Amino acid sequence: MTQTPKAPAFAPTFARRMDGMQASEIRELLKLIEKPGVVSFAGGIPDPTLFPQNEIRAAYDRVLSDPVRAGRALQYSTSEGDGDLRAWIVDYMAAKGTICSIDNILITNGSQQGLEFLGRLFLSPGDTALVAAPTYLGALQAFSACQPHYETLRLSDTNLNAEVYTAETAARGGRTGFAYVVPEFANPTGETMTEVERLRLIELAAELDAPIIEDSPYSELRYEGVAPTIIQSLDIARSGGIEASRVIHCGSFSKVFTPGLRIGWVCAATPVIQKLTLIKQASDLNASRLNQMVVHELASTMFDEQVAKARESYVRKRDAMLGALAQHMPEGVTWSKPEGGMFIWMVLPEGFDAAELLPGAVEEAGATYVPGEAFFADRSGPNTLRLSYSLPSVEDIEAGIARLGALLRQTLS
Amino acid sequence: MTQTPKAPAFAPTFARRMDGMQASEIRELLKLIEKPGVVSFAGGIPDPTLFPQNEIRAAYDRVLSDPVRAGRALQYSTSEGDGDLRAWIVDYMAAKGTICSIDNILITNGSQQGLEFLGRLFLSPGDTALVAAPTYLGALQAFSACQPHYETLRLSDTNLNAEVYTAETAARGGRTGFAYVVPEFANPTGETMTEVERLRLIELAAELDAPIIEDSPYSELRYEGVAPTIIQSLDIARSGGIEASRVIHCGSFSKVFTPGLRIGWVCAATPVIQKLTLIKQASDLNASRLNQMVVHELASTMFDEQVAKARESYVRKRDAMLGALAQHMPEGVTWSKPEGGMFIWMVLPEGFDAAELLPGAVEEAGATYVPGEAFFADRSGPNTLRLSYSLPSVEDIEAGIARLGALLRQTLS
User: Fold this and answer.
1) What span, in angstroms and rounded, lies between the C-alpha atoms of B154 and B156?
2) Whole domain around residue B46: which residue ranges?
3) Nearest CA distance, A124 vs chain B (angstrom)
């Protein structure tokens, strides 16, 4: 038998914007999670045992049992999103200090879609995106398709002012597209912006005449301390109202209920929401109305209860990890002490490389983490790493950190 | 009481790509649907009485009753999509003549998201998108954010060859990004490409070295005649395999089952799927795993049955509309005779303007349609309009077309 000659592969030319898009290291790392016996501090995803499975099942059943509601749930719907869910979010935002109407709310497929839309809305190629270093990797991925230049937001450096940013941006022929922050229990650091930092950010953004993106998926997961006022609310107090505010707030139901329904939202001045709605319509017409109606059922009946349940579980895990770190980590290793969320940020002594240490951590300590450099737009921070305590059990956290501590003690000595 | 001075509104500068984005006329028109007593031939959305509500409810119940499956359904998942659903689609595509593996399938939020991703993947600003005139409005909206130049695909004009397109595109400094077609029961014309046209398109695309986007949401809704081979399969026969094929096939479960779960797919060579997966990850991480699992339950248990049910209902509506048109339309008005799908395309005598006639149609004939110019990239075709028979009842179709015919008879005389 003669072999059929292999056909030449289709090798298309992609658009220029694709040059900046790369696969996520976290994604590649998630494959390691599956290894039996390895404790994953890498994932940073919610604990599935907390998902209110029965209540979600009952909510689908309620919506789909009523022929009229089912017909609406299963049909195409408006790009802005379900009116009842948007009304619930209006009340939720009001409790945070943002007085708005449903015209200020767009429903998105999780807050990730909100970020990606905001990149497209504000970033022409070459424009500057001001981001923390480190910052949420998914935001960098969302924005990178718009070919921005990343500049580090340095709010604790009082010497820095708008002129510095503006001069650098203008030199490249671009504008400042926006400043992006995760103000509560940030991914990856676990840290929370102080009110002083929030006010400084508002001033800086006003001087730059740029919007602020306040990405707030973890804010309900506070285990201690008092929540600072959200940046949007601080700006509204200063500017006079939601329509005058330059702050765009992104929220999510993924960390409280489940990421499986893919429902989040953006709250902003109506001209911003109107443009985002056009993007939503062109992108995927509308988020699943059925899932929106189910989220509304859940949010309006058991939001506080579910938040309490999640807090109660995660605080024990955070405490277990902080306790184990204090007990097992060698001198020279430092880490953040988050008041909430899912993440602890670790800094190794200078000269150590968390990415290089990872294979050893998996093989010898049976534990994974995410090397910190993935969270820096400029790929700096080789001696940093992100630990997440949301997924493993308290026992696995204690054992995994003990093994990781022993390995680091050995490596550092 | 003194009035509080109104705060100046936040007036951000948007990215340049937003200049090309406009609100959809269809969307504005959908608001007219709600008027009591007005028959809508505008919508072009599936008949909600055909949604398998009970089976969908049972499928959610089955997935969410099993704690292991529920945990997986409600968690973050891979951006490519659920393996079981992708495997079902592999079998489905094989039956259409496309032999592929799950690595050739990406799950999207309806086929609309596939189109938007493909725009971003292939169109740098100034590149050419070859589209039919008229074509699907949602595709124009999806592509327009990438600032392409639209060129009309003229497959019936045998004088046209690749040089003509290439010369025009090169003169603008761009490339041909792709050719986009809806080969079966096209939105808005209802027409189906012949095999000769399909082969001519494949030749043209090969000469241009450009991909072909085959958007096929309506293909299951065939009421008579024999389905031509899909373009992807024709190209595979010629090129030697899916990896050698330049055809990207977009499919959807929205027209057979329901648009409410927002599940569609893209089938293409793996390098294309890998890049699209990066875009998916950056855009919204993954489509709802729960909804994907429910669609898999439906597809693997009742696809053929549901297709038969939809065909049986829509063919009666199509026949009612074609019959009423033949009976009531005055001389000089012509229309397409679709073998399937949801749309009939009507051409009024030259000099008449379907957009101008619309308010009268609503007020006097109690019937809406979509003026055809929305479907032309260059806004031509003022004397055309799209009628959809999918939503109204047979009785409303007959009465509405009779009234529209009387109005046109009066207008044209």
Assistant:
1) 6
2) 16-51+304-412
3) 5
N-term to C-term CA, chain B: 63
Residues B218 and B126 in one domain: yes
Boundary of a domain, candidates B261, B277, B302 = B302
Q: Quick count: other Cβ atoms within 10 Å of Cβ A167?
A: 9
Shared domain check, B356 and B285? no
> For residue B141, which residues of chain A lie inside 8 Å, CB to CB?
281-282
Picking from A76, A99, A295 by the largest number of B CB atoms within 10 A of its own CB, the best residue to mutate is A76
Looking at the structure of chain A, the number of domains it has is: 2
Are residues A140 and A202 part of one domain?
yes
Both tokens assigned to B173: 């400094």
- Express each pLDDT in B278-299 by its tens digit: 999 999 999 999 999 999 999 9
Tokens of B271: 């390098």
| Model ipTM value | 0.95
Query: Crossing angle for the helix pair A83-95 and A289-328, nearest 10 degrees?
Result: 40
Name which of B21, B73, B124 is nearest A282 (Cβ-Cβ): B21
In a domain, A4, yes or no: no
Q: At A30, is the pLDDT very low, low, confident or very high (cuts 50, 70, 90)?
A: low
Look up the CATH number of the domain holding residue A368. Answer: 3.90.1150.10
Task: Out of A90-94, B22-26, B160-164, B313-317, pick the least confident.
Answer: B22-26
- As a whole number, mean pLDDT of residues B356-384 equals 91
A151: domain CATH number is 3.40.640.10
Residue ranges in B189-288 assigned as alpha helix (H): 195-208, 231-239, 270-284
A27 confidence band (pLDDT: 50, 70, 90): low
Mean pLDDT confidence for A85-90: 98
